């Protein structure tokens, strides 16, 4: 009975959310249609959807979405693969934190845009340059999340494992990593959204395809429907990747339930 009520409640909430989106689009269309807003500044949804269908039929919209997604995932996973083990080490060792904290404090405030001039000098207008922007924009925040998650593990569990004869590596693998994993994954979801900000900033400056390039190209030719379409595709793509991430998180943390 409780399960049925829960499903019914979720269905009602989904209906309300869908209705709010539809109502927002209708109001947007009406405001533009009656002339309250000049289409050159904000095109109606019908024009945006028309442009989307046109680009989908040409096959160009998918290529822009795919290019940005590959760049985000490559830079994000590269940062994650390094940040998780390094963060666990830094979170469990005061000496390691004393060595790396000054460097981390220097890197963390730097926005991804600040790395664009150097990355262009190092890699040119290449895919590697886009990957590096995402990596540099997400590595330091991901590392901070992992360090804090590691330090929040119950010290009683760590002491108990050591008293039972576990080595330092076993404590990290069997106690600290499982204990900090829920918080690490929650932080990585935030970092994934940040990775999209990084790649769009890189594509706005130096790219030949991608959603950032699509937005900049639309701006150059006064095609505001293309600009809005690019913005909408960023939001939709982020929502889809976040949904997939949640599925992976539920599978990894199934033991927690």
Automatic annotation (TrEMBL):
It holds the Pfam family BPD_transp_1. It is found in: Cell membrane. Signal peptide: none annotated. Residues 65-245 form the ABC transmembrane type-1 domain. It comes from the Bacteria. One of its GO terms (biological process) is alkanesulfonate transmembrane transport. CDD domains: TM_PBP2. It is a multi-pass membrane protein. This is ABC transporter permease. PANTHER family: ABC TRANSPORTER PERMEASE PROTEIN MJ0413-RELATED (PTHR30151:SF0), ALKANE SULFONATE ABC TRANSPORTER-RELATED, MEMBRANE SUBUNIT (PTHR30151). Its main location: membrane. Belongs to the binding-protein-dependent transport system permease family. The keyword Transport applies. Keywords: Cell membrane, Membrane, Transmembrane, Transmembrane helix, Transport. The chain crosses the membrane at residues 12-37, 65-91, 103-125, 131-149, 190-207, 227-248. It comes from Pelistega europaea. One of its GO terms (cellular component) is plasma membrane.
């Amino acid at each position: 009975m409780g399960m049925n009520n829960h499903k019914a409640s979720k269905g009602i909430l989904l209906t309300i959310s869908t209705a709010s989106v539809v109502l927002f689009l209708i109001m947007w269309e009406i405001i533009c249609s009656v002339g309250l807003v000049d289409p050159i500044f904000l095109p109606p949804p019908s024009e945006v959807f028309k442009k989307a269908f046109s680009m989908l039929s040409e096959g160009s919209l998918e290529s822009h979405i795919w290019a940005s997604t590959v760049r985000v995932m490559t830079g994000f996973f590269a940062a994650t693969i390094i940040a998780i083990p390094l963060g666990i080490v830094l979170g469990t060792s005061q000496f390691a934190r004393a060595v790396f904290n000054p460097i981390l404090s220097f890197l963390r405030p730097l926005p991804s845009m600040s790395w664009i001039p150097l990355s262009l000098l190092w890699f040119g207008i290449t895919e590697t340059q886009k990957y590096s922007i995402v990596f540099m924009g997400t590595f330091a925040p991901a590392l901070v999340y992992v360090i804090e998650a590691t330090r929040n593990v119950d010290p009683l569990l760590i002491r108990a494992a050591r008293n039972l004869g576990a080595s330092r590596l076993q404590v990290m693998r069997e106690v600290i990593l499982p204990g900090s994993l829920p918080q690490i994954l929650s932080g990585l979801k935030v970092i994934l959204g940040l990775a999209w900000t990084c790649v769009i900033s890189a594509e706005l400056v130096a790219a030949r395809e991608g959603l950032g390039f699509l937005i900049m190209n639309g701006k150059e030719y006064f095609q505001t429907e293309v600009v809005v379409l690019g913005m909408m595709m960023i939001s939709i793509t982020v929502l889809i990747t976040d949904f997939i991430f949640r599925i992976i998180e539920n599978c990894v943390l199934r033991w927690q339930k």
